[in-house]
Amino acid sequence: MKMFPSQRVSHLLLLLLAVHYALLSSGTAAAAAGKVPAIIVFGDSTVDAGNNNYIPTIIKGDFPPYGCDFDGGVATGRFSNGRLVTDFVSEALGLPSSVPAYLDPSCTVDQLAMGVSFASGGTGLDDLTAESASVIPMSQQLEYFKEYKEKLKIAKGESMANEIIAEALYVFSIGTNDFILNYFVLPLRRAQYTPPEYATYLAGLAGDAVRAIYDLGARKIAFTGLGPFGCVPSARTLNHDEPGECNEEHNEVAMRFNAELQAALRKLNGELAGAQVVYAETYSIASAIVANPAAYG
Predict the structure, then answer these.
(1) Of 35, 62, 154, 161, which has the fewest Cβ atoms less than 10 A away?
(2) CB 90 within 8 A of CB 106
(3) pLDDT tens for residues 82-95?
């Protein structure tokens, strides 16, 4: 999903607040000292730093006008005119100003030790979403994370690698494509689930992904909710009942998923010892911007 500039700003501000809360609440000495050694990212096009450049898919962001405002005007594979939200978060934490793509062969282990994105544009929590777009599913992103952890151990030693994994900030930004590229387009999941049931199913997959990285050592985790994806241009264009207007059915599903996700994350906070899992709410501010764009410039 490509975000409007206003949506990207609201996403950034809310994610930064969630990150701040996660670090203050983690209770670790490193967090208290403001030392976050790395940012580790999972998700879709909102946080794909260029992984799709290296896989056989038509979903790519390696051509103009993508990257027109990036350093040097280079289309890096980010689905954006410039840097991504996670790039700004990285810089705000005192880390490099851009988070590298895991599959970029030019990146060294030393670079990846300070930040890495496993994200893939077009993917979703449901592996069927990724399969339909020929992109990297969440299950494979988690496998890449396991591989990354082993690379860190070889390059940095087990003690240092474990410290990086434990003190890093983890960000998930994913879920929109499960609805706009899968559920509302393809027949299989609609034959299996009602929209609320599918939202519950996806929230369960989100919880599974958090548990998976927790079992590998992650402790500070931010998971962004969905924005009003019924208001993106494609949804407005395909809204046959009210052409050009937001698809309110889609927005209701987004809110349902967000509620299910929040409940799942609250449960995980009670079950995962030492973990701080925070929800980054993006829906309300993005909705306010869509409703009154002039008030936001």
Answers:
(1) 154
(2) no
(3) 999 999 999 989 99
